[in-house]
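Provenance and format

Records in this collection were gathered into a single text stream. Each protein contributes a sequence line and a token line. The two records reproduced below are adjacent in the stream.
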Amino acid sequence: MLCILFNPLQTQIVRSVSVNPWINQAIEEYLLRQISEGQVLLFLWQNKNSVLMGRNQNPWKECRISLLEEENGKLARRISGGGTVYQDEGNLNFAFMTPKKLYNLKRQFDVILQALKDLSIEAQRSGQSDLTIDGFKFSGNAFYLPRGLACHHGTLLIDTDLNRLTRYLQPSTETIKGKGIQSRRSNVMNLNQIRKGLTVETMMEGLKGSFVRIYGGTAQEVQVDENNYGISDLMEKFSSWDWRYGLTPTFEMVLHHDFPWGAFRIDLHIVKGRIDMITIESDELKGPSIQELNLPMGKDPFTKETLIQYFRGVDCFPENSVRDDVLKWIMTRDI
């Protein structure tokens, strides 16, 4: 008699109690590295007042960095591609982690869609990576497929501050040229606009139940934070300037303003998030009207403060009042 042995999936649910995006990114990467054959893991977490961009994006093109930092927000860069999203504690993040041979995008999306259906919310997939209701996006998804492993992660807008989302995710008004992937702008909505009173906790419980029904297994649940795993190196990586800004593809930015005394233009060449070259143009300069600043380029991060420091130290202005006008103008720029 032929005997067929069936090996059930090993399912697990992990929930982070941290709301720090850099910590949660570190936990996510750690968990992905530990995935074993036959295992499917659902990771759930929330972030506080954060902007997360895709691996190959330019933060200066995607969000108002200065405003985010002034309001104690955190900028993060994902390991996956895709676009930039705003997250707060009214948003639920999820990740499906599997060996590549168990990666099944339809099945993973079914977990989410079934959980929503159980809450009397009818939603649809839109394209490869979005979930929508009547054309309004409430979930963006991205994918990371390292050798032998797979991660499908995404967001669920439930009670997110859409005013902050709109304020932070405004493309820069400056002229920027470069190869970074640019986000597609979408009309968004919160799920509690469809189901009044819906909370993140209710949605989270719905996802857990749907995950168990669709994947089976014991789906043992554990709660974790930065102290559960040896992730200090990963936390350092995701919070570092080099990861968040230094991976930005090379780009150029042009700043231009018409002062009462004449026009002034700054051309910036940025490599790995650092100022590589500055050229200025104005009829009010001492010497030629177009000058390349002779500064130690390629070392200093591209920030508003660095730019102000540069212009305080160069001797190219005919008088201090012109320099003061330029410095005041730079201080108003959203860079």
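Adjacent record:
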Amino acid sequence: MNKTQTQAVKDFFSKNNTFVIVQADNPDGDSLTSALAIGRIIESLDKTAYQFCSVKIADYLSYIDDQSTVSSQFPPDFDASIIVDASAKVLFENLEKSRKFGLLAGKPCLVIDHHSNECDLEFATIVYQKTAVSASQLVAEISKIIGAKLDLTTKELITIGILSDSLGLVSEATDSAAVRLIADYIDDGVSLAKLDNLRRETYRKSPEIIKYKAKLLDRIEYWADGQVSTVVIPWNEIQTYSNEYNPSMLVIEEMRQAIGVNLAVAFKIYPDRITAKLRSNYGIRVCDKIAEKFGGGGHPYASGFKIKGRNTDVKELTDKVIVEYLRLIKDD
């Protein structure tokens, strides 16, 4: 970021007093913590921050401080907006349907994102987008630019975001800057043991969810000589179990840990669309490319996409994903 852009970020925070912080339609640990962290930074400047997300924050993230402040109701008035952990319009379908994009377009907007896709949000006035393991890491950088002092809770939020997207600092995208930042925060009082214990408590599952997980594991299918594993989750199961736990997240890690598997894909069947969550093993950097083929995006080892429409055949979609995977593997 050059001096002009740095000054633009400083001006964005100094010249506006009321902000709405927006997450994409499918929030995860990093998007939630980066939103909450930037909100606390704004409040430390004696300004007002509203938290908005069009969907309910998942129960498995309930251990994160301040998550209850996120609302699905758009604030009546604000000076500027901040979009975190996303820069692709396709990730804001609900916001677009509600015509709230128009409210963002007329005011200053800062986008904070660590994904590699080009930002296509035409109304964004400042795009803070660079390579990093998480959006939370970029929030920490912005706090330094504007001279904000972080309290312990804000440092804990940033730490959770980095740990979430780096899979505990072991992902290929983890860099020394992220490790140094967490080390500094540990010196300042952040306890990794405390944060991990809180996370584990919310990951505890009811007997019903354990039984359902067993059914999902039994439904896993293997393709391409065992290199690709898939599971299909129908709408009635999404309705029944999603409030307690995201069905795809129950099994996708086990799916990719099977011997011989390189890519795991969980399909969820909604009345008007199919979504896919992709995870790959180390060295198989294909998830983002496969997702982009179908209009989605993400990271080399974790990504997702959705196909709109009521008549999409999941078997045909599976075949197409496998073909794209095999093409990418062959090219590599």
